[in-house]
Amino acid sequence: MLASYNQLFHNNKKWVQQKLMEDPEYFIKLGKGQAPDYLWIGCSDSRVPANEITGTEPGEMFVHRNIANMVVHSDMNLLSVLSYAVEVLKVKHIIVCGHYECGGVIAAMGNKQYGLIDNWLRHIKDVYRLHEKELDGIADSRLKARRFVEVNVIEQVADLCKTTIVQNAWKKKQTLAVHGWVYDINDGFLKDLKVSVVNKEELHSVYHIDAQ
Amino acid sequence: MDSMESSYTRLIKGNQVWAKEKLDQDPNFFKNLVLGQNPQYLWIGCSDSRVPANEITNTKSGEIFVHRNIANVVVHTDMNLLSVLYYAVEVLHVKHVIVCGHYGCGGVIAAMNNKDNGFVNNWLRNIKEVYQKHSKELLAISDMRERENRLVELNVIEQVLNLGKTKIVQQAWKRRELQVHGWVYGFDNGLIKDLKVMMDEIGDIDPIFRYDI
Question: How far apart (Å, rounded) are the C-alpha atoms in residues B101 and B183?
Answer without folding.
Answer: 6
